[in-house]
């Protein structure tokens, strides 16, 4: 039980980190793309 739960928590932590990075980076890249003209 602990092994399965540990595996789930590990994947949950990895997914959470990726999700947080995605939320932080997407608005940042969108603002930089809209403010700077694309050559």
Automatic annotation (TrEMBL):
Alphabetic keyword roster: Membrane, Transmembrane, Transmembrane helix
Lineage top rank: taxon: Bacteria
Tagged with keyword Membrane: yes
Transmembrane segments: 12-30
Protein name per Swiss-Prot or TrEMBL: Sporulation protein YjcZ
Organism: Alicyclobacillus tolerans
